Amino acid sequence: MKKRVLVLGCTGSIGSQTLDIARHFPEKFEICGLSCGSNENALKDLCAEFNCQGSLFSKEGISGIEKLIKNTGADIAVNGIAGAAGLEPSVLVLQNKIDLALANKETVVMAWPLVKKIAEDNNARILPVDSEHSAIFNLTQKIGVKNISQIVITASGGPFRNFSRKELENVTVEQALNHPTWNMGPKITIDSASLANKGLEVIEAVRLFDFSPDKVKVVVHPQSLIHSLVRTNDGVLYAQISDPDMRHPIYGALVWPEYEETYLEPFDLADHEMTFFKPRMDDFPLLAIAYECAEKGAEYTVAFNAANEVAVHAFINKKCSFLDIAEVVRLTVNNDWSEIPDTLEKVYSADKKARECASEILKKLIRSKQA
């Protein structure tokens, strides 16, 4: 029996790779619905190809996605929407008792306690699609959380891994978008260059797997072949290894709990070099800030994410420097974010407040440079 798959963010990196899988396995998967942000022509073409319903966010908004979720009869939804905009679709999927293959970090970073309860109340599963969290998920399923003492998340280090602090002052948007190992959307690519992405993944790991921040470590692994590791209580490390191809974790989520043959080339250990380094948190402070926010919890993780989104948007539009991103986030989270956001309304309120705060800080930074 075919699994009915709804793809949210179908023209982005995750969505496109999900559709590639569906094309290779028409006997396994039926694409029953598609949504994207604003690329109307691409959406029309894809809906015609897969003979399914579609929703364009720029025209229909969240109501279009809600209608799509309710009407398509999906068994599983892949959420590849980037940024905070992906939170509400995640909630709607789970409320409709549909399993969620989750690539949207912000769902976990902003509102995990609420999202987790919604999933439990509706008997819906959340399957991580991030390559790192997919690896941890599979390792913990096999080994058992009680047997694990530490999670180790790998980071490519991005294009600026070997840049000095002085060199980081003058990096361009074009340089930041030139990732050495992964092909991703612009926002996550910038986050990878700044290590903000790894900071978000630390927060995710803490929440998804219920580990304290001090039990989640980051190691720089430029080849991006090991996607994460776990250390068992006896001190031994176990790793998940594959080529840096997001179709591996996407396919893994779609066929879970089975491990089924795929069309992707099996990884061959021969002739591959693997190296590992400690992250340079002083030069890439967003990772250290993320750890602080993970420890504090409450609205701090919401503020971290919101401020980073504001600053990255400004950097992509060449309004601020690469190093300004971390400064905007640091100054934003220095405010009081200690209230517990126990409803989605409070999450969105904190997100709005943090964006306004970050925008004001950004304006002051820009003015000070122009003075």
* Rg: 20 Å
Helices, by number, come to: 15
How big a fraction of the residues is strand? 5-15%
Global mean pLDDT = 95
Judging from the principal axes of the Cα atoms, what is the shape? globular
Alpha-carbon distance between the two ends: 66 Å
Helix content class: 40-55%
Q: Total strand count, please?
A: 10
Low-pLDDT stretches:
none
Query: Biggest β-sheet, characterized?
Result: 6 strands, parallel
User: What is the N-to-C order of secondary-structure elements (H for helix, E for strand)?
Assistant: EHEHEHEHEHEHEHHHHEEEHHHHH
Alpha-beta classification: alpha/beta
Spatially, the strands of the biggest sheet line up as: 3-2-1-4-5-6
**Oligomeric status:** single chain
Name a few traits of the molecule:
371 residues; single chain; 10 strands; alpha/beta; six-stranded parallel beta sheet; four-stranded mixed beta sheet
Describe the protein.
Helix content is 49%, strand content 15%. It has 15 helices and ten strands. The protein has helices at residues 13-24, 40-50, 57-71, 87-95, 105-121, 131-143, 165-168, 173-176, 186-194, 196-208, 247-255, 286-296, 300-316, 322-333, 344-370, and strands spanning 3-8, 29-36, 53-56, 76-79, 99-102, 126-128, 148-155, 216-220, 226-232, 237-241. A six-stranded parallel sheet has the order 3-2-1-4-5-6, sandwiched between helices. The radius of gyration is 20 Å and the shape is globular.
